[in-house]
Amino acid sequence: MAEDQKVSASTNYTGIVQSPSFQDLLRKKRKFIVPLSIFFMVFYFSLPILTSYSTVLNSNAFGAISWAWVLAFAQFIMTWTLCVLYSKKAATFDKLVEHIIKEAKGRG
After folding, report:
1. Are 100 and 23 contacting, i.e. CB atoms less than 8 angstroms apart?
2. What three-state secondary structure class fits 65?
3. Please, are residues 71 and 47 in contact by the beta-carbon 8 Å criterion?
4. What's the chain's Rg over C-alpha atoms?
5. DSSP letter assigned to residue 37
6. What local confidence, expressed as pLDDT, does residue 104 receive?
7. Pairwise CA distance, residues 48 & 26, whole Å
8. Which of the 8 DSSP states describes residue 56?
9. What pLDDT, in 10s, does the model give residues 21-75?
10. CB under 8 Å to 68, separation ≥6 — which residues?
């Protein structure tokens, strides 16, 4: 934490957690993280499940490359995409945190 953002030991953390600003931060983070996590898990586990219990991905997509390889490669793209999305969204979360810290300093 930056020197100007340090919070003293006497800070009322219970008050911060119960503040509308902090609750808004948690709500926004949940609204973003939960759907993306569910999407990630479904997409990630689709490859081992589909290759283990069906032959759907065995057909050729491009030449000798099967759909299983296409889905496996897509998982790398999906992982990088989610990382970029979260990194950009984290900047907005950081602004909310700065606001919460300013509020806490104003109360303390």
Report:
1. no
2. strand
3. yes
4. 22
5. H
6. 84
7. 33
8. G
9. 999 999 999 999 999 999 999 999 999 999 999 998 999 988 999 999 999 999 9
10. 47, 50, 51, 57, 58
